[in-house]
Automatic annotation (TrEMBL):
One of its GO terms (molecular function) is nucleoside diphosphate kinase activity. The gene is ndk. ATP binds at residues 9, 57, 85, 91, 102, 112. It is an enzyme of class 2 (transferase). SUPFAM superfamilies: Nucleoside diphosphate kinase, NDK. This is Nucleoside diphosphate kinase. PANTHER family: NUCLEOSIDE DIPHOSPHATE KINASE, NUCLEOSIDE DIPHOSPHATE KINASE DDB_G0292928-RELATED.
Length: 138
């Protein structure tokens, strides 16, 4: 089984959408094997999204991710990385398929409700960024 790092972003925690988003993960066969609510500092958010530091939206992204609490979680399942990205939908909710998290809940390309790892290497790095091995209960 594969594991991926998911973040329920501030626009979604603010609107009490954690349960509805988790239902979509579980309905797709993804098991939530670790989960915690945290409030990232700007420095922590900046480090997490360092890969995007040269993109024009980096400052806005970091400010948003540190604005209010997030729920970080590890999802486990068959092809969890791709399966999660399918459930999330396209980055811009205007382009997301019906039934996806971003189609149903996202507010904009920036405030798009969820993050998901995009490859096995980034998934491993991102899981280790937030969780110790003891916290992963598969
Ligand atoms: P993540 O799972 O969050 O990594 O989303 P993604 O892989 O679908 O998108 P990408 O990695 O390209 O961008 C990371 C995040 O930056 C997106 O989820 C958005 O929150 C934000 N982002 C991307 N493009 C834009 C943009 O044009 N404007 C703003 N404000 N934010 C953007
Ligand atoms: Mg990404």
């Amino acid at each position: 089984l594969e594991r991926t790092l998911s973040i329920i972003k501030p626009d979604a925690t603010r609107r009490n959408l954690t349960g509805k988003i988790n239902a979509k993960f579980e309905d797709a066969g993804l098991r939530i094997i670790a989960q915690k609510r945290i409030h990232l500092s700007p420095a922590q958010a900046g480090k997490f999204y360092e890969v995007h530091k040269d993109r024009p939206f980096y400052g806005e992204l970091v400010e948003f991710m540190a604005s209010e609490p997030v729920v970080v979680q590890v999802l486990e399942g068959e092809n969890a990385i791709q399966k999660n990205r399918d459930v999330m939908g396209a980055t811009n909710p205007a382009n997301a398929d019906a039934g996806t998290i971003r189609k149903d809940f996202a507010l904009s390309v920036g405030e798009n409700s969820v993050h998901g790892s995009d490859a096995p290497e980034t998934a491993a790095e991102e899981i280790a960024f937030f969780f110790s091995g003891l916290e992963l209960v598969g």
